[in-house]
Amino acid sequence: MGNKVMSQMNLPSLGIAVRTLFTGYLLVMAVGFIMSGLQILFTHGMADGKLGISVDDIVYSYHGNRHSSKLETKLNGSMKDKASDKDRTILIKWARQGAPQEHWKKVEPVFQANCIQCHSAIPGLPNFSDYEETAKVAKPDMGASVDSLTRVSHIHLFGIAFIFMFVGYIFSLAVGFNEKLKALIIAIPFTFLIIDISSWWITSVFPGFAWFTIIGGFGYMMAFVIMWVTSMYQMWILPLKGKEYHINEWNDKR
What we know:
Layout: H1 2-6, H2 16-42, H3 55-62, H4 70-75, H5 85-96, H6 104-114, H7 131-137, H8 146-171, H9 179-203, H10 210-236
Helix pairs in contact: 2-10, 3-10, 5-6, 8-9, 8-10, 9-10
Transmembrane segments: 21-42, 155-177, 184-203, 209-233
Keywords: Membrane, Transmembrane, Transmembrane helix
Protein name: Elongation factor-1 alpha
């Protein structure tokens, strides 16, 4: 009995309960990646004021736009629809003047009317009801700080690594792959994840490395698509063809 079970350790031979478990996880992860892509599109993707991910978006997000301020960049980009042209002009002009404290009483009502509902209640966002915090955002944009890079890096490394651990676990049961090729596909997202995260830090100093952020993200997304499509196909389509697979995909000596 034990040998029979071990000989059926492959995706097409799994029972319907296990296939349903794996499928539920893969579907949720697919939706999660779509949502993360949209989030990137509407945040980093608007860093240069234009919809869509570009090298300039990456540079502005991590190295900064040192001829402008974060406040101006956001008001001309992802936050452009949050205030009228008149109010945006007032805030941008104040920032370009060096955010003088003597003008704070004039611009504070504009922040109150357009920004304060988020920028006073959501943790992690600068508090625009406070002059000191607002003035920091109005200074020349020097890019992501070490604190923010550290925070975002550890969240991505732990979170995405766990995602690909389980996606790779499911894909490891796929049939029809050379064992070395399968191992390479499983290793790709972890390799490109490190490239992606490392490029944030390097780009914050050397903007020319922004390309590696795009390459890293594209690399592990392609690996996800390959493993996702293969796993779903083998769990649900191959069994319908009636072919039985008596093979243990976790045995290197098969």
